[in-house]
Amino acid sequence: MATIATVSSLDDPRVAAYRWTADPARLEAEGLFVVEGRLVVPVLLAAHAGVGRFAGCAQSVLVSPAALDQMRDTFDAHDVPVFVAPQAVLDELVGFHIHRGCLALATRPAATTLTPTCVGNARVVLVLEGVSNPDNIGGIFRAAAALGADLVVLDGACSDPLYRKAIRTSMGATLLVPYVRTTSAVDAIRVLGEKGFVCAALTPSTAATSLPEWTLRSTARTDTAAAPAPRVALVAGAEGAGLSREALAAADVRVRIPMTGAVDSLNVATAVAIALYHVRVSVPS
To answer: Is there a contact between 84 and 4 (Cβ–Cβ < 8 Å)?
Structure first.
């Protein structure tokens, strides 16, 4: 059962680290991250109580009295300190209005770099190149959780999946879907290709294969009819710039989502979700 204590001063050392909520660089330097919201903090607490990279990560929760009343049963199920502060104090502590009145502070897990070993038994992987918008990172992770991606690979230019806004937008999916870092999307394509993945680059180019016409087995690394379902990696880039020429050249196939022509491209999180759905209904589990 959680220990619940009242915080009445911004000088209380038990909540001092929450002052960095609006300073993601400081949080990361301190090996911490913050989760926000009454729907997402329970996801963190469940991950904290489970197994895997986030086991035991939650340090404390900071809530308003109203949030405590609504979430008391959730807190009672976990042995994590809960600090209660008046809404005005809580807003001043973090520097902005927290309209849902709920934050949690957690220890950041060690970074993991893509290797052939860490791919494990994954069958569907996302590779992201230069996706720096945290809303897009969150949306992609939410789609990954909903549509069955087993792993997300991010290059060095991608936004931090443990940035507060990315976690909130993902509805906590960045705490659920495994992810690793890579030096470049091209390197990730090479590593995944060596593990038998079909690497498909998403692009709006009219020269690319239309998604409904893309037969995964036609680009699989074996054409044996009795072969297992292909392993698939979808490679996506930032909005505007899209994928680099190097990443496009390294992929096995370039795939586009057919559109009306009223716009020239889709939001990257939307495009990834559509492509993941196609893979989900095309490849037997």
So the answer is: yes
